[in-house]
Amino acid sequence: MTSTPPEVLPVGRRVAYWRGRRRLSQQVFADRLGKSKSWVDKVERGVRALDRVSTLQEIATVLRIDAAVLLGRHIQPAQVIERDVAVERIRAALSRYEVPLGRAAGGRPVLPAVQVARQVTHAWITFQHARYLRVAELLPELLADVERAHAADPVAGRVPLVEAYRLAASLLVKLGAPDLAWLAVDRAMTAATGDRLLVAVAAVQLGQALRASGQGREARSAMLAAAYRIAPPVVEFGLPPELSLCGTLLVQAALAAAGDGDAAAADLLDEAATLAARVGDGHDHHRTGFGPTAVELARAASAVESGDGGEAVAWHEKTTARDGWRWLPVEHRAAHLLDTARAYLQTGDPIDAGRVLLEADRIAPAEIRHRPAGRDVLAQVVRDPTAPEMLVHLAATIGVG
Predict the structure, then answer these.
(1) 3-state secondary structure of 153
(2) Which of 57, 72, 102, 361 has a 20 to 30 A CA-CA distance from 283?
(3) From which domain of life does this come (predicted)?
């Protein structure tokens, strides 16, 4: 027996459906609305009508959905709803202020800094495997744990705190919420203040958030300031972690410059390549994946930002033949494949754009299904009549058109 899709249910049944999806009992739901359990029951059974817009909006807010969903209008694809829920979950976590407000921790113990550091590492690995919604599930409790651990032990808890905020910012950029990402990275920068290296670590995500918000000049300025602040006086004497971080900041500055049409992007990437040669491939210092391969991928991304799809494709074909390509995290490779799809579209080649999108979906489905940038590229590809049938089916399945 097939179930009725939520979009064709009466409004009361839609309320019951979404309450169930949010795992709220009628009593908890009623408490959050400031209503009685009996009121909720009557609404869900259709005995009581929902004829006030303000009430519908209150219900939608508690259920973390758009009021239009309750009315059966403009139903969003499941992947978009899941992404929006993930963003709201993180927004709620960033809004708690448990430590400064002295709020109770809900019975959870304060964990040692070394334990929360392991949790942060696990969450970062999950992100690098492009399991974005899983990271969104982990982040609320993880942020609470690192904040309490830092309050209990400011010295040992500082790095896990910064790393957790960095992770939140990286994920939020992926999920298309740059303003909220900026909030997370602002907290990382504040927590890192006083430690030049830790500030530079947090600045990587600052660059991402600023670029995603369209603030290319600000991103370039901040990245160069952070990079040159930690740059070794003599490159040959620099340590790989330090060189990786400095080089990654130069890459971020170059991408910001390319987005603004600034020819200085090429010089910045040349400078980063010099550092990358000293680091080599196969490393992931400070979660950067920095090395010669990463710099060449950045050259491709820079070309895409400049509108030179042909050059970007050439860098793609050269770089993905390197051993270092296979050593990069899945998230990094999938993001590059999205850039390459854009490059093929710039050259008028939707067939190859579709081919690399299929590869991205194979290794990291969330990059296409949950990332707005991925969905946008997919929508462009499937408009072409020669688009691969598998992509057309994927687009129809996830509501992209």
Answers:
(1) coil
(2) 361
(3) Bacteria
Q: Distance (Å, rounded) from C-alpha 368 to C-alpha 353?
A: 13
Residue 2 has pLDDT above 60, yes or no: no
Place of tokens 């979009």: 7
Is there a domain that residue 132 lies in?
yes
User: Do both 34 and 94 map to the same domain?
Assistant: no
Under a CB-based contact definition with an 8 Å cutoff, are residues 356 and 385 in contact?
no
* Burial class of residue 28 (count of CB atoms within 10 Å of its CB; 0-12, 13-18, 19+): middle
Specify the 3-state DSSP secondary structure of 52.
Answer: coil
User: Residue 83: CB partners within 8 Å, gap ≥ 6?
Assistant: 133, 175, 176, 370, 372
Three-state SS letters, 99-141? HHHCCCCCCCCCCCHHHHHHHHHHHHHHHHCCCHHHHHHHHHH
Q: Where are the alpha helices (DSSP H) in 177-327?
A: 178-192, 196-212, 216-230, 240-259, 264-279, 292-305, 309-319, 323-327
Cβ–Cβ under 8 Å, residues 197 and 232: no
Tens of pLDDT, residues 202-222? 999 999 999 999 999 999 999
Confidence (pLDDT) at 383? 83
Q: Which residue intervals of 7-157 are DSSP H helices?
A: 11-21, 26-33, 37-44, 53-63, 67-71, 78-94, 98-101, 113-128, 132-152
Q: Which two tokens stand for residue 304?
A: 């895409």
Q: Is the pTM of this model over 0.85?
A: no
Domain count of the chain?
3
In the chain, the largest separation of any two C-alpha atoms, in whole Å, equals: 77
Count of other CB atoms within 10 angstroms of residue 179: 10
Q: Are 222 and 210 in contact, with CB atoms under 8 Å apart?
A: yes
State the virtual CA torsion across 341, 206, 186, 89 in degrees, nearest 10. Answer: 20
Helix (H) or strand (E) holding 335, with range, is helix 330-346
Q: Which residue has the tokens 């709620």?
A: 92
Residues 97 and 176 in one domain: yes
Residue 222 lies in a domain: no
Q: What pLDDT sits at residue 260? A: 86
CA atoms within a 13 Å half-sphere pointing along the CA-CB vector of 345: 21
237's CB contacts (< 8 A; 6+ apart) are: none
Residues 110 and 88 placed together within one structural domain of the fold: yes
Which of 214, 232, 259 is where one domain is finished?
Answer: 214
Domain that holds residue 100: 77-214
